[in-house]
Amino acid sequence: MKFNPFPILETERLLLRELNVNDAKSFYQLNLDKEVMKYTGEGAFKDIEESKKFLENYDQYKKYGIGRWAVINKENKEFLGWCGLKFTENLNEYDIGFRFFRKHWNKGYATESAKACVNFGLNKFKITEIIGRAMKDNKASIKVLEKIGLMYDRDFDFEGSKGVIYKIKA
Fold first, then answer.
1. Which regions span the lipid bilayer (predicted)?
2. Where do the domains of the chain lie?
């Protein structure tokens, strides 16, 4: 994967850039936290090498021009987590997703970065609809989806748990 080192998006406090293999350790550590992973329906990487392989094979940027991006603190260049749009071909849909280290929760980073990503998708890529999925018990993520303008659409089965889908249309 060829890495674009330049920010894709910039907000007041954050830079969003493509994820790359140099993020493997942070990416691995982010997924180790059981609280961070609680509502994702995913498991942790078994080691940094597995995280690195995932990042090497991540093809959203090349295929669709978008993807999940590293969220970097402008002030100190710290990797805070990731946020971005993902296209799922078999569903023909774009979804907004985000994941941050727990020490960065409740600081507005998810809202700030997700709002920028949704606006980018709607305005630059002319995406007509973006969805957000969350487990029904994940009140914090649902609050972010609402703050960035997505509206409740429907319930769904989130890998055996109760989930909700929120949506925004251009």
1. none
2. 9-127
Q: Phi/psi zone of residue 65: left (φ > 0), alpha (ψ -120 to 50 degrees), beta?
A: left
Cβ neighbours of residue 52 closer than 8 Å, sequence gap 6 or more: 21, 24
CATH number of the 9-127 domain: 3.40.630.30
| Distance between CA atoms of residues 129 and 170, nearest Å | 6
How far the first Cα of the chain sits from its last, in Å, is 31
Contact 96, 144 (CB under 8 A): no
Give every CB contact of residue 6 below 8 A, 6+ residues apart in sequence: 17
At CB < 8 A and 24+ separation, what contacts does 46-49 make? 48/24, 49/24
pTM to 2 decimals? 0.92
3-state class of 19 per DSSP?
coil
Q: For residue 112, which phi and psi values (nearest 5 degrees)?
A: -60, -45
> Which residues share a beta bridge with 93?
88
10-residue mean pLDDT profile of the chain (170 residues): values are 72 96 93 82 84 93 94 96 96 96 96 98 96 95 97 93 95
Q: Give the Cα separation of 15 and 12 in Å (integer).
A: 9
